[in-house]
Amino acid sequence: MNDETQQNIRNATVHSVIDGVSANQQTVEVLGLHGSADAYLLAQLLGASSKPLVILCAELESARQLVTELPFFHPHPDDIALLPHWELNPYDPLTPHPELEAIRMTTLSALNRRKVKALVLPVRSLMQKVIPRQVLDTISLELLVEEEYQRDQLLDSLIQLGYQPVPLVEERGSFAVRGDIIDLFPPDAKQPIRLDFYGDFIEKMRPFDPTSQRSGEATLKVLTLIPSREMILHGPFLETLGQKLKERCDELAIPRTDREAIMTELREGILSPGRAFLLPFNYPELDPLEQYLDTLQLILIDPPAIEQEIDLFHRDIRDGEARMLEQGLPHARRQTLYLEPGELQPLLRQPARVEISRLQVIQFDDQRQRYHFSCQSNNPLRAKPTSDQDGLEPLLERLQQAKNENGKTLLVCHQQSQAKRLQELLAAHRIELSIDLNLQLSDLISGSPKLTVGELNNGFYLPDEKLNIISEEEIFGRRSHRQKKTGQQRARQLMTSLAELKNGDFIVHTDHGIGRYLGLTHLQTGKLEGDFLHLQYSGSDKLYLPIERIAKVQKYIGGEGYVPKLDKMGGQGWEKAHLKARAAVEELARQLLELYAKRELRQGFAYSPPDQLFREFEATFPHEETADQQQAIDDILDDMQSPKPMDRLICGDVGYGKTEVALRAAVKAVLDSKQVAILVPTTVLASQHWESFQQRLHDFPIRVEMVSRFRTSAENKKTLEAAATGKIDILIGTHRLLQRDVRFKDLGLVVVDEEQRFGVSHKEKLKQLRAEVDILTLTATPIPRTLHMSLTGMRDLSVIETAPVDRLAIRTYVSRFDDELIRQAILRELRRGGQIYFVHNRVQTIAAMAEQLHQLVPEATISVGHGQMAEKELEQVMLDFIAGKSNLLVASTIIENGLDIPRANTIIVNRADRFGLSQLYQLRGRVGRSDRRAYAYLLIPGEAALTRDARERLRVLQELTELGAGFRIASHDLELRGAGDLLGGKQSGPIAAIGFELYTELLEETIDRLRGKEREEQIDPEIRLGLSAFLAEKYLPDPNQRLQFYQRMAKAENDEELFDLVEELRDRYGEPPLAGELLIATMRLRILLKKLCVELLEYDNTRLSLLFHSSTKVSPDLIRQLVTEQPDRYRLGADFKLNIKLGQLPPGELLVRVRKELQLFF
């Protein structure tokens, strides 16, 4: 290195770099940054720069990480925006994911309004041309409170902006109209917005929660509506698209019929997979992104990687275009959608740029100023703990060193719960730290460490600034990236709601039995009108059930694939089925009570409370515990500290964190000098658990071993001898562990995974073990919440039903079977060192499919697995895949069952239209187990060949990235499977005979009765007041939403519940019309009638009649007194029926008088 070059490299401080950039005369190159120091430097540049920063990364993941970390150092997160690319080749038969479209439109709109001070983007996003800035300017719509808007024109504008009309607004880019209310969800809004109209004037604009559909106190004065996607399939834009598509198709000699098929779809607002290439046809010309960037400060992160990515992506799109030409398919020229590499160079080579380089490569002829930071990355600040010493020594030494140097130290945890753990662990070493959630770097004091919460994956040390930033990863090991959850992503807890009912579904009427729902029907008889449930029974029997009696009806849920017979109204069949089910429930309840009583009498080992080493083990968990998971852990620790033997069931989907729950129990047992046996149904699962346990316990003085038929007899013998002498703490194996020759020195805990998959003899052995040691059972089959509640206090049960918060949502694409798409999807995963599942559910043709894939992707190492293979052969295939010996597993649906392979993050499902929604949900759940983005490709034969149901299933799966309402519906079949496993096979008949909901009600009622717990008689009053009381279709158009409100009103237990519901109704739909107000008042009366046990309330224009049930608590003396003292008004008829003279009253006055009369009896 010559002297001139040497002089050109300076020892850098943040201030010297800022000064160098401000001089704005030559390229500034920054070297030597480690960890999150680049985010720290960029935040300082952002604060000092008068121009917006454009921060260019090679890849989307790097850009995402920067966008996550920058707000930690910069106090105004809204200044920072990410512009992702489509994550696909435009010539692939896929459609950009709606979430990505929403983020792109949000960022483009913010750039257009000059609201972005730091734009972070991968170079692919810079290459991609975008919606013209002028179009975005003219088409965006500003709404103001108290301004007049023609409603029809506004709705047309929403459709033009790409918003989809829906019954219920839950997703971005959708809108719903209900009377005087319009709900809409702009792509750039954190929550959807509710517009309240008075005539044509906007009276109010309120954000609302998409989960509860309720608005809060906050209001908006101004709302800017931006397009929901870059393509506008409406008006002149659609005409431009049609004209340019015609010209291109004529040029390519593509038949008119092909072009017209595309245009027919687009006119109907359908954007089929593989239509991304149409974007350039939508406008006269797309803009390069530079049109949105005025004066800017360009910053390149790792320039050589950026150049490499430009070449790679350019090759991809060039190959994609060539493929379309070869296949004779319509497409746009690549130059109309992307910049060529040569067109990018003037921007990338502008002189006053900043380059943050990973490697120092000296070029003697360039005129650039180089700054070198003496920055250090933090080595892992953790040692392997021993039985008498924790692993915090390296951290304590670093803190002491910083104190001696009078340095500034900041410890950063992702979550407050983890910060509290670290606080407690340090307190044990006499280092007292408070948690400051609002801490700024300027608040740091020399020699005094601070603790805060924030998104930072790696820390760093800047000696010149004496600044130590330490992340929790560097203390406790690598953690996965946490995704912030927005309201619409939260999983909702739904009862088996009538909102799920579709015409033709089976229902259960508690009096008449199983019928078929034919819709919500509005009928008028004379002057009266109302809504009725139209129910069909056997033969030609029909029932029109008034909506105030809706509590009598439940959605029928029987067994998977079971089709029930319709009952005959007034026949004996339903009564017999009911009695038979009641007898089965009675027998089950007695067995459960007997087991419970025996367990209460047994004595077991009481473990000590968690100590310092246990707390440190908890802190090394690489994820944030979900609330359900933490509750399950707390339940187990409480059980273990009790002198009674534990027998707890943990229920949760695969990947929801059951293994970690079992690990906590196992570590607690080992730290109290007990041994643990982990019992699993298959060798494959044994290997998986062994790997998980080894990984988690690597730094702790705990020995884990496995007995497996894939180990030699000598190895297994040696392992069993070590277990017998107490040298092994945790032993993992299949039912081999239940054999007589397996002995433990001091067994304290047995963890059983998927007990229902063990044989009868093994279950008997487990029954004996239950009397001696603590048992923890894990199951991945969901247990219905209603059943969970019924068994409270009978069976110790913890349910984990919240998905981990650090999972990236799975990108789900629906596509026709396409060789190039499959090849690219597989290669994308292989390039990042991952593995792929290819699901082909035809055993007869699975070998041929594997061969086809081998020809298509020779780079992949393929293995084949299906249920008809010999057990040992299949296990070997699975173990090879887990070990990474193969990277593409072509399999039948066997992969539904329990596999958890974090490296497998792409799944391709062939003929996805042939699977049920619950099956697709389970299959898709095999991927997305790590902090990497997972991809699911659902292959279909072409949309024309799909049934309507199949198309709807795939639409739901593509749109829902979380366990939301659609999957709650799909999960009923799975829950029934779980109920059968928990209750035993004998109960499946009674469940199918009367439906699951009624079955659980019977079970709960029977358990309470056998335990001597008093239950109030549940009366469903019949109300005949001669009033037209209903929610009008014009007021609440969606019949399923109407049904749900009727059901919720009928189930309201008190006025408070009902008023809350009415408030929601007013919030979501505006003031109800008169018929709605009458319904609300009638439902208030219903609450009183239930409390008084009145079976019938009837008004005949002059007289009110009350029929009391025999269980009523109303005093007969009070009734006698009324009849005796006021004989003109009160008379007692047959069957304890009380008649009250009211005279002829209008509806409003009648309801007030009836309420007054009923209150006399309280």
Walk me through what this model shows.
Among the domains are: 3-133 and 287-372, Rossmann fold (3-Layer(aba) Sandwich); 141-225, Penicillin-binding protein 1b fold, CATH 3.30.2060; 393-412 and 419-473, 3-Layer(aba) Sandwich (Rossmann fold), CATH 3.40.50; 602-800, P-loop containing nucleotide triphosphate hydrolases (Rossmann fold, 3-Layer(aba) Sandwich); 811-961, Rossmann fold (3-Layer(aba) Sandwich). The protein is built from 37 helices and 42 strands. The protein has an eight-stranded parallel beta sheet with strand order 1-15-2-14-13-3-5-4, with helices on both faces. The protein is globular, with a radius of gyration of 34 Å. 42% of the residues are buried.
Write the layout of secondary structure elements.
Layout: H1 3-7, E1 9-11, H2 14-23, E2 27-31, H3 37-48, E3 53-57, H4 60-73, E4 80-82, H5 98-112, E5 118-122, H6 123-127, H7 133-139, E6 141-144, H8 151-160, E7 164-165, E8 174-178, E9 181-184, E10 193-198, E11 201-207, E12 222-225, H9 235-251, H10 256-267, E13 297-301, H11 303-327, H12 334-337, H13 341-348, E14 354-356, E15 368-372, H14 393-404, E16 408-413, H15 416-427, E17 450-453, E18 460-462, E19 467-471, H16 472-476, E20 506-509, E21 513-525, E22 528-536, E23 542-546, E24 553-555, H17 573-601, H18 612-619, H19 627-641, E25 647-652, H20 658-671, E26 675-679, H21 683-697, E27 704-706, H22 713-724, E28 730-733, E29 747-753, H23 760-770, E30 774-779, H24 785-790, E31 796-800, E32 811-816, H25 819-831, E33 835-839, H26 846-856, E34 862-865, H27 871-882, E35 888-891, E36 904-909, H28 917-924, E37 935-940, H29 948-959, H30 965-983, H31 988-994, H32 996-1010, E38 1022-1024, H33 1039-1051, H34 1055-1069, H35 1074-1092, E39 1094-1099, E40 1103-1108, H36 1116-1125, E41 1130-1132, E42 1137-1141, H37 1147-1159
Parallel strand pairs: 1-15, 2-14, 2-15, 3-5, 3-13, 4-5, 7-8, 13-14, 16-17, 16-19, 25-30, 25-31, 26-28, 26-29, 27-28, 29-30, 32-37, 33-35, 33-36, 34-35, 36-37, 38-39
Antiparallel strand pairs: 6-12, 8-9, 9-10, 10-11, 18-19, 20-21, 20-24, 21-22, 22-23, 39-40, 40-42, 41-42
